[in-house]
Amino acid sequence: MSALVENQDIRYNQQVISIDVENRLLRTSKGDEYQFDRLISSLPLPEVIKMLKNVPVDVCNAVARLHCTCGYQISVGLKTKNIPPYLWWYIYDEDILPARVYSPSLKSPDNVPEGCSSLQMEVYCNRNEYTREELLARSVGKLVSLNILKQEDILFTDIRFEPYANVIFDHNIYEARKTVRDYLFSLGIETIGRFGKWGYLWSDQSLMSGLNLKA
């Protein structure tokens, strides 16, 4: 990945809050403005629409029909390699909040220090539906009680809310998605990635959606 960003002018910690397509300007929360010749966005389609002015009613109605899941990602760092030998696995139990558990350390040993491992648990719910204590007790705590993890092996836990998790493929998605993406394209905004294309793209597919754009 380092080769892709070498010698590139990347501005970090900048939140774009508005897009002026007429003057081809991006404005950030810090008050900075950036002129652009070509605009490629991997942001979720609803977020891009929020940054524009005078959006047609039919486009606003279409973006309101785009739905996705949201939830918490609970990460656990462990000072042991003794974890289930599965890249990801699913849980079907109402008392245990995570629907799926994934191991970044099994994906690549470079993701953790020597002798350690990691797990990430996915809890699909609304923001603040559970307290931090409830999230930990009904995820990490449950795995400890089932002897899948040992409390003394846990180095740290981290909880983050993700407002955009997976696209929901309902009856409205195809027409609504086309309406929104066609409108953005008419303004000169090209969209890429899982939520720019609003599809079930894996990380490699998301990357290729950008690399495959015509120069």
Give a description of the structure:
This protein has 215 residues and is an alpha+beta fold. It folds into two domains: 1-66 and 169-212, FAD/NAD(P)-binding domain, CATH 3.50.50; 68-167, Polyamine Oxidase, Chain A, domain 2 (Alpha-Beta Complex). 28% of the residues lie in helices and 23% in strands. The chain is built from nine helices and ten strands. It has helices at 2-5, 45-50, 57-64, 104-107, 132-137, 140-145, 173-186, 193-196, 203-211; strands at 16-20, 25-28, 33-35, 39-41, 71-78, 88-90, 100-102, 117-124, 154-162, 189-191. It has a five-stranded antiparallel β-sheet. A three-stranded antiparallel β-sheet has the order 1-2-3, with no helix packed on it. Strands 4-10 form a two-stranded parallel ribbon. A hairpin with a 4-residue loop joins strand 2 and strand 3 (33-35). Helix 3 (57-64) crosses helix 7. The longest helix has 14 residues, at 173-186. It is globular. GO terms for molecular function: oxidoreductase activity; UDP-galactopyranose mutase activity. It comes from Phocaeicola vulgatus str. 3975 RP4. It holds the Pfam family Amino_oxidase.
Keywords, please?
215 residues, alpha+beta, FAD/NAD(P)-binding domain, Polyamine Oxidase, Chain A, domain 2, 2 domains, 5-stranded antiparallel sheet, 3-stranded antiparallel sheet, 9 helices
